[in-house]
Inverse folding.
């Protein structure tokens, strides 16, 4: 029986060594696999090793039991026949159990390896899918960012084009307005020059300096004003002569009342003094504008619609820097006599000094128009 135990122990040791190496390789597969596989299949490896150890201890215990049963009771060393049927049957039974256990362990190891390989393949597939999804997401993000950038750039370009077009339009309109203003000023200046060249050289109505001491533009204006003043004076003298003329029959036939006759004679005397007051005011215009203004007011008390007195009163107010009142006097003179060129010229000159060029051009145009109408 000693021979059988040793044989059994040797067979068990060889089987243990062979399956121990397989378990070591399986453990290496598990250890080198993914983290999840190593944590999942480590209890299986531990269970298989524990099972093999238990079988080895059980076989050793069985061999010791057989030896104790085969020994004689009196302790004599009677040799036992190792080829007895009971021992052979026991050895075959133990080997069969050991082989079946080892087959089960081997099957479990194979199943474990297949599970580990399947888990590794699934992990690789999941990792590849995750990387593909991440790459697609990054590509979509880059595409959306590039599209948004292109849209923003297009909107900026449209805004810049619109701004440039609006600025160009305003610049063109401003340039056109400046050219139109320059053209009208040139036309007005040219017309005034033509009119002044056609008139004789005279002094200004207010006894100003000689023409040689003035510039070309001022000479033109003074010559024109002097000529117009002479014409207006001549017209007023003709009106006064007609009012004092010998054709007094109709006036005598209107009323024989002495009171009305005396009032008419007083009115005629007042109107007869208007030219003298005008001459006096004109002589005092440069040295005493306030005294000249008082003379003009006295004339206007006699005749509120005296156009020449209104124009010269406006000139006196200009010298006193009362520009708004001067414009009102010019407007009253124009309302009394719309064909009075002198009123338009004075008003246009005042607007020109106030840098109200558009209104000045209109006044100069009216002056040319009225002068041409009187010339015709």
């Amino acid at each position: 029986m000693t021979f059988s135990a040793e044989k059994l122990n040797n067979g068990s040791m060889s089987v243990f060594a062979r399956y121990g190496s397989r378990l070591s390789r399986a453990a290496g597969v598990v250890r080198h696999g993914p983290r999840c596989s190593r944590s999942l299949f480590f209890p299986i490896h531990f269970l298989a090793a524990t099972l093999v150890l238990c079988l080895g201890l059980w076989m050793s215990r069985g061999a010791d039991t057989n030896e104790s049963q085969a020994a004689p009771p009196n302790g004599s060393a009677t040799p036992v026949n190792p080829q007895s049927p009971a021992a052979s049957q026991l050895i075959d039974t133990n080997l069969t159990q050991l082989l079946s256990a080892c087959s089960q362990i081997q099957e479990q190891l194979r199943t474990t390896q297949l599970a580990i390989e399947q888990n590794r393949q699934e992990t690789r597939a999941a990792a590849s899918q995750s990387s593909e999804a991440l790459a697609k997401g990054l590509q979509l993000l880059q595409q959306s960012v590039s599209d948004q950038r292109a849209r923003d750039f297009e909107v900026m370009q449209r805004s810049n084009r619109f701004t440039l077009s609006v600025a160009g339009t305003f610049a063109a309109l401003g340039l056109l307005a400046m050219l139109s203003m320059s053209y009208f000023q040139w036309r007005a200046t040219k017309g005034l020059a033509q009119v002044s060249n056609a008139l004789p050289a005279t002094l200004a109505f207010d006894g100003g300096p000689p023409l040689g001491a003035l510039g070309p533009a001022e000479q033109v204006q003074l010559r024109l004003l002097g000529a117009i003043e002479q014409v207006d004076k001549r017209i007023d003298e003709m009106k006064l002569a007609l009012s004092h003329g010998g054709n007094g029959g109709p006036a005598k036939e209107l009323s024989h009342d002495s009171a009305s006759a005396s009032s008419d004679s007083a009115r005629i005397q007042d109107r007869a003094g208007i030219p003298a007051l005008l001459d006096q005011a004109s002589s005092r215009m440069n040295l005493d504008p306030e005294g000249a203004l008082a003379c003009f007011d006295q004339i206007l008390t006699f005749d509120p619609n005296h156009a020449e007195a209104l124009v010269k009163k406006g000139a006196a107010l200009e010298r006193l820097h009362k520009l708004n009142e001067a414009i009102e006097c010019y407007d009253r003179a124009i309302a009394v006599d719309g064909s009075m060129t002198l009123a338009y010229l004075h008003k246009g000159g005042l607007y020109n000094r106030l840098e109200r060029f558009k209104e000045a051009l209109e006044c100069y145009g009216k002056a040319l128009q009225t002068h041409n109408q009187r010339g015709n």
